[in-house]
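Q: What residues go here?
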């Protein structure tokens, strides 16, 4: 076997072929690792940054504080009011909440039919962020945009509103979709929501609080019944509702890292108040 230019044996044709194949496999592996890193890390980083910026922009445009800061302000106001009542109370009087004679007791459960409905206004433009969704038990805050296109909405880390379904606070079904994995993955832990957890939706004019009511762990990606005005699965018909109401529906892919099936969480409107 002849030596190479530096005295090393020259590779035979079979050896060269194996060496070239090994280099190709290593290169392909590195490319795949970079692709996985891009999908699992970079897309999340970019989408979350854009989503946070969009939430801040909406709050500035609305000229108000976010739900979290508003709640803190209300707690502080409540403490100040309690302090004033304590100072005004006669010495020796028992401390307790002020009551109004003949005032009705608060309802133990939210009403399925709120006394008034929000003004829907003009339909939002496609891909336009116009509301903010908060899932306090999951630590999720995300913009809500009209439509569920991947490029214009979901891949930005937004939650998408199914066109044709109700808007926040309206009778019917306010139906939303979001990524479970990659691109901000706002619905990554949607399966952790439990009955009674809050789903808060803020718009320019009002804040709507829904309470989680039911979960459909898995259904077909084509199960349109889950976002109907009266939501009921067309595939697993024991899941859903049989009467009109004020609903919210959250949908995402399941199992994780696939898009084969859909996970669905339903809630009912519990309260609405102006901003």
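A:
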């Amino acid at each position: 076997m002849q030596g190479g230019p530096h005295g090393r044996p020259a590779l035979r044709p079979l050896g060269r072929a194996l060496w070239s194949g090994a280099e190709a496999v290593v290169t392909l592996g590195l490319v795949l690792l970079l692709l996985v890193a891009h999908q699992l890390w970079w897309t999340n980083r970019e989408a979350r940054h854009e989503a946070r910026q969009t939430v801040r922009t909406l709050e500035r445009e609305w000229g108000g504080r976010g739900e979290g800061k508003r709640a803190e302000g209300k707690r502080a106001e409540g403490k100040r009011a309690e302090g004033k009542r304590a100072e005004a109370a006669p010495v020796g009087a028992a401390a307790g909440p002020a009551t109004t004679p003949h005032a009705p007791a608060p309802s133990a459960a939210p009403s399925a039919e709120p006394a008034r409905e929000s003004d829907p206004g003009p339909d939002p433009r496609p891909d336009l962020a116009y509301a903010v969704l908060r899932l306090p038990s999951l630590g999720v805050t995300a913009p809500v945009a009209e439509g569920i296109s991947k490029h214009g909405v979901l891949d930005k880390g937004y939650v998408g509103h199914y066109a044709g379904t109700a808007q926040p606070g309206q009778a019917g079904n306010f139906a939303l979709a979001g990524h479970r994995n990659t691109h901000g993955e706002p619905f990554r832990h949607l399966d952790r929501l439990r009955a009674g957890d809050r789903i808060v939706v803020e718009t320019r004019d009002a804040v709507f609080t829904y309470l989680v009511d039911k979960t459909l762990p898995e259904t077909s990606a084509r199960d349109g019944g889950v976002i109907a005005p009266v939501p009921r699965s067309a595939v697993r018909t024991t899941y859903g509702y049989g009467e009109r109401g004020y609903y919210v529906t959250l949908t995402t892919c399941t199992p994780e890292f696939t898009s084969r099936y859909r996970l669905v969480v339903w809630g009912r409107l519990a309260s609405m108040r102006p901003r």
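A: Context that may help when evaluating the design: The chain has two helices and eight strands. The first strand starts at residue 129 and ends at 135.
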